[in-house]
Amino acid sequence: MKKSLCVLILLSLLTLPVVALAEDAGDACVRAQLDAERDVSGALWLALGCIFPILGLAAAYLLEPSPPATALLGKSSDYVAVYTDCYKDKGRNIQVRKALIGLLCVPTFGIALFWL
């Protein structure tokens, strides 16, 4: 009885930091995605896709948005790494999606102007 209780306590002490780290990493990714949605200007990338169709899309894919430094102050290195990766992924996704929509609007406007 004592031996199984000791093993149970030992296992719970060993797994506690792993569970806490996983929750912290998941929280960092969710926060990063929300911050990227708030910070990345979809209207700017939409306009770039309309005005410079191919260049705008290429820039949207190549340029990575940087997370705000204030969101990373006082955080652990693991949190910073997860937050930065998730922020860049979500930000690039927004940029490319909006630039692609802008690119697809160019032929639509061209056809509409042709029929006027």
Describe the structure concisely.
84% of the residues lie in helices and 0% in strands.
Describe the structure in your own words.
The protein has helices at residues 2-39, 42-51, 53-62, 77-115. The chain has 116 residues and is an all-alpha fold. The protein has one domain (24-115). The longest helix is centred in the last third of the chain and has 39 residues, at 77-115. Residues 18-22 have low confidence and may be disordered.
Mean pLDDT: 81
Low-confidence segments: 18-22
Rg (CA only) = 23 Å
Euclidean distance between termini CA atoms: 87 Å
Instruction: Count up the domains.
Output: 1
Strand content: under 5%
- Described by the principal axes of the CA atoms, the overall outline is elongated
Structural class: mainly alpha
Task: Give the fraction of residues assigned to helices.
Answer: over 70%
Discrete helix count: 4
DSSP E strands, number: 0
Largest sheet: none
- Helix and strand pattern: HHHH
List descriptors.
116 residues; mainly alpha; elongated
Write the layout of secondary structure elements.
Layout lengths: L1 H38 L2 H10 L1 H10 L14 H39 L1
